[in-house]
Amino acid sequence: MKKEILIIGGGLSGLVTGYLLKKKGNYSIKILEANSRLGGRIYTKKVGSAPIELGATWLWKYNTSLLNLCKELNVNLFEQQMEGDALFEAMSANPPQRFKLPPNQEISYRIDGGTSALLDKLSNELQRCILLNEKVLEFNSSDDKVLVKTPNSTYYCDTVISTLPPKLLVNSIQFSPELPKDVIQISDKTHTWMKDSIKFSVVYDTPFWRKNGLSGVAFSNVGPFTELYDHSNASDNGFALMGFLNGALAPLSLEQRRQKVIDQLTKFFGEEATQHIFYEEKVWRNEELTTFPDNQFIMPHQHNGHIIYQKPFLNGKLFISGSETSKEFGGYMEGAVRRAFNIIENL
Ligand SMILES: Cc1cc2nc3c(=O)[nH]c(=O)nc-3n(C[C@H](O)[C@H](O)[C@H](O)COP(=O)(O)OP(=O)(O)OC[C@H]3O[C@@H](n4cnc5c(N)ncnc54)[C@H](O)[C@@H]3O)c2cc1C
């Protein structure tokens, strides 16, 4: 009989785990995703001809597992455009200063068609296994089977692989029997990468910022954006800028943040910045399927890849996976992929 595996979460980690299990064969697989879309912290929005990344964007040449996966699935990459000078705003009273980016910087790569192109390839292989709008609320383990409950259904399986950020897992799913105390404590203090970030993108008809030899790269001590990059598409015929906003702006309305961003872009690049076609943003701290809201300060990457996650729980019935549990590159897409390989080896 096929071993029944239930994966909680249809982010990169969950999808790669499902893909690898399917390739290995002899498993019955289900992936339960609470959201109405796949991807979790990968969120590409298609507006106009420039796919906008409101979640994960870049990969690097040392991300070997992710790069191999992209190659296997015929997912193409292109280099982040960095050609030209950058701008730096030190104080609000002064205009931004122009400077040269250091030569021989590490190249950041993007995925042609958006990071979601990788998700599309993975989910095509897994179509009948994926169930959207299925938020897991309860995990009950008996002697032989595990029972998993969502608001609509009950599932029975042999093994569960959770890919939720550990902090979210222990604060949002009810376990019977309870998880060991040390697992709860460590998970509750495990950092979820980018949980407080606000990412935005502004789409334009033309890359006017490239005039006068500027790259579109900008940094600011003043805000609202702290970092900015050219976010045009791989064919360079859909144009956009993308950046990160100061987290203190989360309580404002979208319209207030939009106006502040356009004002700042106008200060950096002139009047043409007001002529945008779309403004898109995502406030990740408001995303309840990523971030558990509490006021606890957790150091970036704290407990990522902790030793406690490296063994299964409840007699092999539960694996705690997801990028943050990876011993290498925890919090990044590379961590999500490596952890999926690691789980399969230990299943
Ligand atoms: C703004 C931002 C920028 C980033 N930039 C980069 C980058 O440039 N490069 C990089 O390598 N990484 C980046 N990252 C990190 C990268 O996105 C993550 O490492 C990776 O996507 C994590 O994948 P995962 O599957 O482990 O977790 P997640 O993507 O968090 O997936 C977990 C899934 O579980 C689902 N879920 C939650 N609760 C339940 C439940 N109760 N039942 C069922 N499903 C549930 C969620 O909806 C989600 O789909 C960025 C992240 C953000 C937010």
UniProtKB/TrEMBL annotation:
Residues 106-339 form the Amine oxidase domain. Pfam families: Amino_oxidase (PF01593), NAD_binding_8 (PF13450). Gene3D superfamilies: FAD/NAD(P)-binding domain (3.50.50.60). It comes from the Bacteria. Transmembrane segments: none annotated. Coiled coil: none annotated. PANTHER family: AMINE OXIDASE (PTHR43563), AMINE OXIDASE [FLAVIN-CONTAINING] B (PTHR43563:SF1). Belongs to the flavin monoamine oxidase family. This is Amine oxidase, flavin-containing.
